[in-house]
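Bit of a strange request maybe. I'm writing a small parser for structure token strings and I need a real example to test against, not something I typed by hand. Could someone generate the tokens for this chain?
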Amino acid sequence: MKWTKERLNNLFLLIGIVAVVVMLFTFEVSFVELWQHICHAGYWLIPIIGIWLVVYAMNALAWRTIVHSPAVGHARVSFLRMLKLTITGYALNYATPVGGLGGEPYRILELSKDIGNRRATSSVILYVMMHFFSHFWLWFLSIFIYLALAHRGLVPLTPMLKILLAITTAVCLLAFYLFMRGYHKGMVFNTIRTLAHIPFLTRWCIRFLRRRGHTLRTIDAEIAALHQHDRRAFYASLLLEFFSRVVQGFEVMFMLLLFDIDFGGGTSGLALTFVVSVLIVAITSLLANILGFLPMQLGVQEGGFVVSIALLGFAPSLGIFVCIICRVREIIWIALGLALMRIGEKHPS
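Reply from user aminoacidic:
Good idea to test on real output. This should exercise your parser:
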């Protein structure tokens, strides 16, 4: 059977639907408890879900900045088209094991209808690199946030935590070096060549390099060109991705306010609440990316929220509430993303 783009699209849709069904039937709380938590959220559920439209819009702008850069071919794709592919791509990433095995191939498949396969592949790889690069900057920033909160006596700073913070700092600095090296020289060809040293991948990698070696080097050249020849687009994309991570803090902040946690209220209290929320997001995303091979990161995201909220000394009931409402928000956006796969779909003539 020949795997056409339309059949692959249908496969991605089927995988997403199955994942949502599995998620609905594997909630660790009863539907009665789930409904109670949703009722507790009340009208706050609207901004909790809505803030992610802002996040996805910033993600789409970051990706569109790369696509429109002359370094990657200066293609023109509408913002709404990019927003649709961003939402559907993340929906598949949430729904499939090893986040990225669903979303990124889907984005390449769909964007290739607009700008061709090579440029689509280059832009998606560049965007994924930028996405993870921004994560490391968030984790690096969270180290200083944690130290500042520890100075105020809001979080503990034990010898073990000092060691963990030092390790995180070292890992972030190493990541900065590796990413910048990848942006200078490209990384696709060398990554495939490195994978060739793994016994069960050797033959496949060698054959792939022989068939696609020239294309891979071209993609690497485009990756390097963005940083070398269009610094404005590079840093604009990075800042958009980074601040999209920061904006996610509003979701947690809204839930903290539901529990009357505002550190005294007023401008300074709300600002501190937001900073604490960003720290919770950073710790949760760190754990989720370490163990991101689980479908919808089942259990990992919850563990991240529990750990971060426990560090801050909040009640366990808050951790449970945050976990459940965030999972509800994910299911809603996954469902919206899967629905968008069938809206305005382009078929090659």
